[in-house]
Amino acid sequence: MDKPIEDMRLAQIGFLVNDIEKTKKEFARFFGVEEPETVNSGEFEITKTQYRGEPAPKAKCYMTFFYFGDLQMELIQPNEEPSIWKEHLEQFGEGIHHISFNVKGMQKTISACEDWGMELLQKGEYRRGNGRYAFMDALDSLKVVVELLERDE
Amino acid sequence: MDKPIEDMRLAQIGFLVNDIEKTKKEFARFFGVEEPETVNSGEFEITKTQYRGEPAPKAKCYMTFFYFGDLQMELIQPNEEPSIWKEHLEQFGEGIHHISFNVKGMQKTISACEDWGMELLQKGEYRRGNGRYAFMDALDSLKVVVELLERDE
């Protein structure tokens, strides 16, 4: 089986946290930068969130982003509705949840990851409708969730 | 408090695993590369490992490294003797343990991290004696362990 992702440069590391405002302060202090804005994951009409194969209109999260070098660090605080964010946070606690790679052609990359042995956990469109993400379960093999990111040109 | 580390570009992501040979195979399959060599952490006479402030001559691990882009991915399988590797693996299970930064001046950077609010968990010299590492506890603040790496010129 060929590698499922073309560009293996790491695009993002994503953390799940219980209190994004508190942890955001600590990251800003660590990096020596201003606190970035916290945004929410957006409206279902745009995001079309699917959690374990089913529409999840109530699944939401708060997100904030730090940049250093070529790498993005994302903090995610889920809401109380079922989502892969909430599920993972409850099962494993706070900490690094995923590593992300930029892809071209989301559906074919999801299929390649499934052929490789990963399961699709959740997918959706960006809150501004300018791209999409998919979380693939690689916990057994790579000990981490792999996120695919596709930004529309 | 100023940021404790000068160069905030991520140098390494480190995983703790139970079976390095098995997980190494999966990483090589994912990245589409040959399996790298597994090495051990070296002899205490060189490494001078200190675990929570005490000499830990029996603390050892197996390590292997993957490179993609500017980033190193490290897999670590600890031996059965007490170490921060074994402690963390038992407490949190397999997965990402640390993110690493290159520093210049290990002792002053450890002190800066301590002033920032991190606790020194373990430190030692590289197995070839050409550098040193320190694991700083940032689990409360940043939800991850921060590793300092200093390679001698």
TrEMBL record, chains A, B:
An annotated GO BP: L-methylmalonyl-CoA metabolic process
Tagged with keyword Metal-binding: yes
All copies of domain VOC, residue ranges: 9-151
Keyword Nuclease tagged: no
Annotated InterPro entries: Glyas_Bleomycin-R_OHBP_Dase, MMCE/EMCE_epimerase, VOC_core
Gene3D superfamilies: 2,3-Dihydroxybiphenyl 1,2-Dioxygenase, domain 1 (3.10.180.10)
Alphabetic keyword roster: Lyase, Metal-binding
Gene Ontology molecular function: lyase activity; metal ion binding; methylmalonyl-CoA epimerase activity
Protein name: Lactoylglutathione lyase
